[in-house]
Every structure is written in structure tokens, then in C-alpha cells.
């Protein structure tokens, strides 16, 4: 039986989240930016909506260049707020994972899934599941996504790519070769500019040319491992399985301080967003934690850590901030150097269904 593998990728993710939050900007070019803070416009475009892309403002472009291109088009320039997209991502991934057999998140807005067992290899049933996933995401979060279904990860990913934006592409096992054949090799996962150049040297540009190429020649040029992967990818017979994600064993955040400091309040202010994000991930996960740590990277780049471990697993996120403050103060007292970066981590996560907060625990002990 052919495997049934899916790949889902949200459309212009950060910018779409901003549109959902503020629908009045939908018809304008929207650019989400990472401001580096050095000068007013220094930084890069993280992503843009399709209106902005049509005019030429794209991921990775300097903010100043994007502003120049969009000048006169009434653009919306937005500062990236990573925590916001993480929170949406977590909920979307939940909607997908509960509808599939095996779920593997591979990025903030994308995941592979395996539905071979629940569909019994039936691609019509698979398309129905994919449609259900897309509808659930749209109804719950207002976000459009693109999905590809095929017999391997490579095929599924190329499918979601071709379906973009907003579509669903099902590549039947029998149509795999005709789907893949005309694509340029650069579309294949794992084919970067270097590999593409090496392939072009031996006259291979399309996936079809790759799938029909002389394997021993490929091996001599690219090594045995890459050659065998490429040949299998090109024929849609790569066997890479969808691997369920391992649950995280810790949640952490680290920030570079605006200036080197030994001031606890200053460090805590800049950690605030990160601590809130850790609290959000903790709440989403339903887990408890036992240890809070702070990490300080000093001006000479040496690292110092301070930790607090509770007697029992706790789930009250207010404890993270409270203890981080105490630990940072201890950390600063233990060194004469300034801090350049600070981080917070909670670890020893457990699935404890214990609803008690530490306060309740303490109360009971008294
Ligand atoms: P798409 O999938 O083509 O409709 O558009 P996106 O924006 O969803 O692109 P994708 O899936 O490659 O990336 C997902 C998110 O990751 C995107 O919304 C913002 C972020 N991202 C992508 N490329 C860059 C980049 O070059 N720099 C930064 N800072 N963030 C990026
Ligand atoms: Ca995307
Ligand atoms: Ca993506």
C-alpha cells in the first residue's frame, strides 16, 4: 500500500496573523519587520502579504528597501512580535495533530503528517481529511493554509508549495512521476545552489532528468549518500518517515540586553516578554515544571547559571517571574562582570495532572 503523507504550510504566516487581528489592513501591502534597533529603519522584512510581494517587498529584504519600493502604495509596516505568532502556531498545530495519525512539526508554520493508517491508503479519504484540517484552521483562527498530499515527504512538500496560496494538491501515487518530472531540481528538498550547480554541470536541470540519470556518474560527482537520496527524491520514492515530535523537556528564552548591565530591574524588564512566552507555552502544554533557571552571558562571553528546584512539580507561571528575579539578583552578586545577554529556563517538565499550585501546597503544609 502506498503511504499517504501530508505537508501543511500556512500562507504568509506572520502577515496573515496581523491581518486577522486587524482586517482593515487586508487590502494594503503588509510587511512584518524585525527591527534591529540600531537606527530607525535598520532590520529586515520577516515576511509580507501577497499585495506587498506583488510590488516586490519580500522576506529577507532590508526594511529601508521595502519602504522605498512600497512608497506611494499605502503600506502597513508592522513590528514582528514573535510570541504572538508562537501562540497562534501552537493552537494551529493542535488542530492538525488531533486529526492525523502521526504528526511532525517542522517549523513555526509547517508540519508533515502521516494518514496512511486512518485512510487505508485511499487518497480520496486523505483529501477529505486535509480539507477538514484546512477548514478547522480557517474557522478557528481565520488563517488560510496550503496542503500537499503524496506518497513521500518530498512529494507532499512540493504539493503544498504548488498549492500555495490557499490550495490543496493531492498527488496520486500513479501521477507522482508526471507531477515531479517537469519541476526544476532546485525545488527538491535538500538541493541547494551548490548541488544544483553540480547537477547542471552534468546536464541535469529538471527532476525528470535527475530521475533518469546515470547513478554511478551521480555518485562520483556528489557522493553515494546524496546521490541515492536525490534519485529516490526525484522519483518520489524517498522513504523518510514522518516522525512524531519528541515532547520538549524544557522551555527557555534568551535576550540580548540593549546595553551591558548589572542592574536587576533593567535585566528583568527586558526578560518580561520572554517570561510571558514561557508562561504561555507552559499553559498550552498543560505541563508542570520543577526547576527555574536564569542564564547570564557576561561581557567576556562566559556563562553563569543559577537555579531553583521546587519540592514538587508546579504549574503556576507567576512563579517563573518571581524566582527569575531572585535568581538574577543572586547571579549578579556572584560576579563582578556586566551581563550582555540573559535568559530564563524552566525544566524538569512533567505531565503531572496535579492541579495544586505551590501556594496551595504551602497552605496544606501549614
Ligand atoms: P508563504 O508560505 O510563502 O505563503 O509565506 P510565509 O511568510 O508563511 O513564508 P514561510 O513559510 O517561508 O515562513 C514562515 C514564517 O517565518 C514567515 O511568516 C515569517 C518567518 N520568516 C520567513 N522567512 C524569514 C526571513 O528571511 N527572516 C525572518 N526574520 N523571518 C522569516
Ligand atoms: Ca508559510
Ligand atoms: Ca513555512
Using brief descriptors, characterize the structure shown.
globular; MutS, DNA mismatch repair protein, domain I; Dna Ligase, domain 1; binds 2'-deoxyguanosine-5'-triphosphate; single chain; 15 helices; four-stranded antiparallel beta sheet; 366 residues; DNA polymerase, domain 1; 12 strands
General description of the model:
It is a single chain. The protein is of the alpha+beta class and 366 residues long. The chain has helices spanning 13-21, 50-55, 63-70, 82-97, 116-119, 123-141, 153-163, 176-180, 193-201, 207-211, 215-222, 224-234, 264-285, 318-333, 358-365; strands at 5-10, 30-35, 43-48, 76-79, 102-107, 110-114, 145-150, 168-170, 250-261, 289-298, 303-314, 339-347. Among the domains are: 14-83, MutS, DNA mismatch repair protein, domain I; 181-235, DNA polymerase, domain 1; 250-365, Dna Ligase, domain 1 (2-Layer Sandwich). 43% of the residues lie in helices and 23% in strands. The strands form three sheets. The chain has a five-stranded mixed β-sheet. A four-stranded antiparallel β-sheet has the order 9-12-10-11. Strands 3-2-4 form a three-stranded mixed β-sheet, with helices on both faces. A hairpin with a 4-residue loop joins β10 and β11. α4 runs antiparallel to α6, α4 packs parallel to α13 (264-285) and α13 runs antiparallel to α14 (318-333). The termini are far apart. The site of one calcium ion (CA) has 4 residues, from β1.
